[in-house]
Specification:
The chain is an alpha/beta fold and 144 residues long. Strands 3-2-1-4-5-6 form a six-stranded mixed beta sheet. The longest helix has 11 residues.
C-alpha cells in the first residue's frame, strides 16, 4: 500500500479536500499539514472528526507553498493530479520539490482516464491527458 511510504514521516498533504485521505494516514504519520485552496472544504475536513494533535489544516495554494511553516519528509496529493493542466505540471512539481526535503517520499494517487468521463467538460482532448495515471510513489531527487 502506498500509504506505508508515509508512516513515521512529516507529511505535506496537498488538496486535502474533506480530509478523507488525511484520516487514512493520521494514525501512522508523525505529522500532517493538510492544505487546500478551498476554505469551505477545509472546514468540512476540520469538522469531520476530532483529529490527533499531529494533524493541522491550512489554506494554501499548491502552486505557492513558500509561506507554509514546517519541514516535510513526505508529501501526499490524492486525486489532485488529474486536476492539473499539463502545461502547469512542471511548475507544480518544481514548487512541491522545492518545499520538501531531499529524499522525501511523495505519493500521488488518482484515477485512470476513462473514455466518456467528465474530462471532456474541461475541453481537453485525449492527447492532452497523461496516459499513465494511478497510484505511484517517488522520491524527491537529491541534489548532486
Amino acid at each position: 500500500m502506498p500509504f506505508e511510504q508515509l508512516r513515521d514521516r512529516h507529511v505535506l498533504e496537498l488538496a486535502a479536500g474533506t480530509g478523507f485521505w488525511t484520516d487514512i494516514i493520521a494514525d501512522s504519520a508523525l505529522s500532517i499539514l493538510a492544505t487546500d485552496f478551498n476554505v469551505a472544504t477545509l472546514q468540512v475536513a476540520k469538522d469531520r472528526c476530532t483529529w490527533p494533535d499531529c494533524v493541522a489544516f491550512v489554506e494554501a495554494d499548491a502552486f505557492s507553498l513558500d509561506e507554509l511553516s514546517g519541514t516535510f519528509d513526505a508529501a501526499l496529493a490524492a486525486f489532485f493530479w488529474s486536476h492539473l493542466p499539463l502545461s502547469m505540471l512542471d511548475s507544480f512539481l518544481e514548487v512541491l520539490f522545492g518545499r520538501i526535503e531531499p529524499g522525501a517520499k511523495v505519493v500521488f494517487m488518482d484515477n485512470r482516464y476513462v473514455e466518456g468521463s467528465n474530462i471532456r467538460s474541461l475541453g481537453l482532448t485525449t492527447r492532452e491527458i497523461p496516459i499513465k495515471r494511478g497510484c505511484w510513489t517517488a522520491e524527491r531527487p537529491t541534489k548532486s
